[in-house]
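Record type: monomer structure entry
Structure origin: computed from sequence
Chain ID: A
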Amino acid sequence: MKISTRILLSTLALTSAALVFAEPLPIAVFDFQAGERSLEKKGAEIGILLNAHLSTQPDVFLVERQEVDKLLGEQELGLAGNVTPDSAAKVGALVGAKVLVTGRVFESGGKGYVVAKVIGTETGRVFGELATTSSLDKLDGPAAELAEKIAATVSKQAGALTARVESHDARVERLKKAVSGKTLPPVVIMITEQHLGRPVIDPAAQTELMLLLREIGFDVVTPEAASSRADVVAITGEAFSEFGLRRGNLVSCRSRIEISVKASGKIIAVDRQRDVAVDIAEHSAGKRALENGALKLADRLVPQLVNR
């Protein structure tokens, strides 16, 4: 009986680990570049077709192209396929994607070639996939073939495409070392939060920042206590999460957090962060997306608090 119990527990542990590792990664698809001016429309067409075919793949979460276009509309980078490994991190942060897909369309030797680049926004790693066609007038076949290859690559290379997840304890220790020997000001944190237009009772971003700053060594005070003290640094802002996509039993949610930091009547920092998370329940996914965003903000915020 004991042996059977151990086997069962080991199996459950392995299954849980596999489920965590197999969590779908948010993907954004960009238009492909064209080898010559006459093929420019083909570059946009393959991007649209590839996005459509990937949306039918199980365990693939796509950032909507309309959303990507809107978020990058005022940026240097658009959907024109000019995303490089160096710029991937910036684009990924803007659109909330961990994987970017772009590429090139060209003709050679009487054949058409569609080459896809799969870029990890956190690691800069690039993987390539290729599809050929007798004529670029018919791109649906190559797009379907590429979609299957890209989905397989993302699943197989998830560990290389994404950064290693830092544990909570490791993050606390790292930030403690960063502020060691420096004076830590008292702080008050007030970040209102909503999901799908509804207020949330326990703001995830605010809670995550309060927990982390307290563990690092900051004196986190209440709004009531802060009102009677002149030395308190106020971190205020707004955050929201929203439904992204559903695939089977999994749901993705996107989040955005905006904060400002004020000390002695002056704004000393302004920052924002987008993120995406996947879970089996919508509100849990929204919370995780906000928590992830708050942790990324903290990495940039802590040095500003001690070096103001």
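Annotation 1: The domain at 2-161 is CATH 3.40.50.10070 (Rossmann fold).
Annotation 2: The longest strand covers residues 233-247.
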